[in-house]
Fold:
Amino acid sequence: MRRSKLEMYVDILKVLTHHGPLKLTHIMYKANVNCSVLKRSLDFLIQQNLVEEQTVHKKKNKTKTAYAITERGRTVLKYFRELKKALPITEGANKIPVLLL
Structure:
């Protein structure tokens, strides 16, 4: 079953919460998202101030870009968890119930 964009955004935020700042490929594997979709998702999350880019200095004057969740991103993730608890939705819940008269 395909995930919605919202579910992918939440999965990316969860990965960044649990594993700290990560490079693109690490997020890709942990959130199970392909590279092009991940780049678009990260751009959106950055625009919404939920994720930030960080420059990480490596050996030999090389720099890498890592992505980290912001405080606002943690708050949004917390609200999604609360919403999920308040509205438990099961698979197949999108089917319309048949009323028997």
